[in-house]
């Protein structure tokens, strides 16, 4: 039996492929769209049995080519650009494609684990997996939100089939080099510091309690672990938040990134005040294009995830970004 990972050459997908490999799983069919060819680098150190273009794959699934030969699908493939304005493309790519895979998995009794998003919550201040707190601010969030509603209906009709959705918060970590402007804050902080000797943050990055922004930043290693936990427990279904469970400021990320770079040069870590005083951290105006489309505060309520039995700790920004900077230093 094979395991399928869609979006396999992408950020989270490639980390899941690598995590599967580390437990000895190599019968993996990688599905993706390599029109942006640089993503292939994410799979160089991974073992798979086949690669299929995402459009060829959906046609073959519908034609019955994989019937009876698949154990699980990790559906990570999606357009994740929150600034994408082509709603037709977003809905076809994120909603319709996902719906076809879901129905096939239910028909074949295949475990279906998929990427939802914290963008489903929009401007809500409560991040709990309930309809009353959901209200996406952009068409990306809406595409994920609408599919989650379909999943809820399918689970009510077929409770014995495993369907698991993960509402990813701000994921960062290895294998996101191809994402460009949509890469994590930690990624951009690292490259900006290497290039300019300083990091620039938007005004308000000091923290929500002072009128700024704080987000739930979750290390991709933890994301992969949670995915594999549910793979190991096919009796567990539902839609779950997947974040660190804590809100931290963009300042925290920048401090961890800069100190990670300093450590690589044998320099002592500095605190926020010292970084600002030495001109290593500056603030710029918040972009007009993001106003009204941006979640100023996010913090995953992990109650449901913990109740499902996942009890491993989630990395703090200080822990996760430090690991990530070490990885980036070795791979640039």
From TrEMBL:
Pfam family membership, one: Epimerase
Cofactor note: Binds 1 NADP(+) per subunit.
Domain of life of the organism encoding this protein: Bacteria
Active site, per annotation: 140 (proton acceptor), 179 (proton acceptor)
Residues involved in NADP(+) binding: 11-12, 32-33, 39, 54, 76-80, 93, 144, 171, 179
Signal peptide: none
NAD-dependent epimerase/dehydratase domain segment(s): 4-243
Catalytic reaction list: ADP-D-glycero-beta-D-manno-heptose = ADP-L-glycero-beta-D-manno-heptose
UniProt EC number: 5.1.3.20
InterPro entries: Epimerase_deHydtase, Heptose_epim, NAD(P)-bd_dom_sf
Enzyme class: isomerase
Binding site for substrate: 170, 181, 188, 202-205, 215, 294
Keyword presence, Zinc: no
GO molecular function: ADP-glyceromanno-heptose 6-epimerase activity
Pathway: Nucleotide-sugar biosynthesis; ADP-L-glycero-beta-D-manno-heptose biosynthesis; ADP-L-glycero-beta-D-manno-heptose from D-glycero-beta-D-manno-heptose 7-phosphate: step 4/4
Record's keyword annotation contains NADP: yes
Necessary cofactors: NADP(+)
Keyword annotations: Carbohydrate metabolism, Isomerase, NADP
Family per record: Belongs to the NAD(P)-dependent epimerase/dehydratase family. HldD subfamily.
HAMAP family: Heptose_epimerase
PANTHER family the record matches: ADP-L-GLYCERO-D-MANNO-HEPTOSE-6-EPIMERASE, NUCLEOSIDE-DIPHOSPHATE-SUGAR EPIMERASE
Record text on subunit structure and interactions: Homopentamer.
Its biological purpose: Catalyzes the interconversion between ADP-D-glycero-beta-D-manno-heptose and ADP-L-glycero-beta-D-manno-heptose via an epimerization at carbon 6 of the heptose.
Domain free text: Contains a large N-terminal NADP-binding domain, and a smaller C-terminal substrate-binding domain.
Protein name: ADP-L-glycero-D-manno-heptose-6-epimerase
